[in-house]
Write a structure and sequence with these properties.
Radius of gyration: 21 Å
Mean pLDDT: 96
Bound molecules: nicotinamide-adenine-dinucleotide
Number of strands: 15
Largest sheet: 9 strands, mixed
Oligomer: single chain
Number of domains: 2
Length: about 375
Amino acid sequence: MAKQSVSKKKLNIAMIGSGFMGKVHSNAFRQVGHFYDVDYDLQLRVVCGRDRVKLEAAAAQWGWEETETDWRKLIDRKDVEVIDIAVPNALHAPIAIAAAEAGKIVLCEKPLATSLEEARRMAKALRPVPHLVWFNYRRLPAIAYAKQLIEEGRTGQPYHYRALYLNQSGNDPSKASGWRYQRSASGTGAAGDLLSHVIDTALYLNGPISELTAVLHVFAAGRDVDDAAMAMVRFSNGSIGTIEATRYGVGNPNLNSFELNGSKGMLQFSLDDMNRLNFYDATERANFRARRNILVTGPDHPYWKTFWKPGHTIGYEHPFIATLGDFLQSMSSGEKFHVNADDAVEVERVLDALARSAASGQWVKLTTDAKA
Ligand SMILES: NC(=O)c1ccc[n+]([C@@H]2O[C@H](COP(=O)([O-])OP(=O)(O)OC[C@H]3O[C@@H](n4cnc5c(N)ncnc54)[C@H](O)[C@@H]3O)[C@@H](O)[C@H]2O)c1
């Protein structure tokens, strides 16, 4: 039975940023109570952005009570318990640290930071407060199911992990501007924007990366962030891999895919077909082996009870709802939530090694740090 709203604790949210992710998060805040039985009643208290006209329109469309153009004014407000960060990457650290120091619950977009050092400072500030990093793809049923199959041993000893995140925004002069193309606002280009997702999924499914060698490439003369990032990596589990992201993957508006080859089987996923997971079982008798194209909508798949009945597909918005729902449940249960800031530091560690390798042309070993 769903909890009655009278017994729920009110959580007033201030969302900073009302662009693409502002829309996605607003939807998740509105929807989460429809799918999850949570102890919290989320209130869309105030939305913050720079452009007053756009802000008023977003507030009216999604039902935010108030608008604000200065995020600093939100931090000390007693009527705000949650700060949600959906702004360009360079603003994540100042907002998240100020919000955590004020004791707020913090929801922060990826990439967590613009550098490893900044990510470490953020993690230190965020550890004492409930927080999440919006690496949403872990909660796609197909990716969560891939994790389950790997943990069941269905893929055996991993040999190869290869993954791509491709879009074509760099090739379109009308899109190749704005904060994503300015280092001061974004920190990096395709690396932080796209490859960060690939890295988080790789770490989730195939474990830590021990060393890598990388290339960062700029196609457009004068651009101060990378257009493409690719690396050959060695994982601690003995497998080797390639990870790649580009804004020049012409023909791919938003492709996010991976393939894992192990001694017992193969897994393959593509966001273009996000409700499905390919699995090849190499342990079946030879004349019976084939690639299975599994519709990961239940029964007995991750999140099938959360959303629709078996065979009824879900969309881009659902893993964000699942991220928020799992997070709110973890706040009630006290269970550690992932992806948290320490998990996101591991993504930054790979991005940092990648930049160092690209600059030096050398293989770079990754080291862990003691938590400060
Ligand atoms: N999890 C994902 O899959 C995913 C997808 C896209 C973007 N992102 C991340 O979300 C963040 C935002 O990306 P987006 O695509 O929504 O960008 P966007 O350009 O669509 O929106 C950015 C918003 O930030 C606001 N903003 C900028 N400077 C501000 C300031 N000083 N004060 C208040 N508001 C300010 C803008 O007004 C705008 O509303 C980035 O960190 C990005 O990496 C994550």
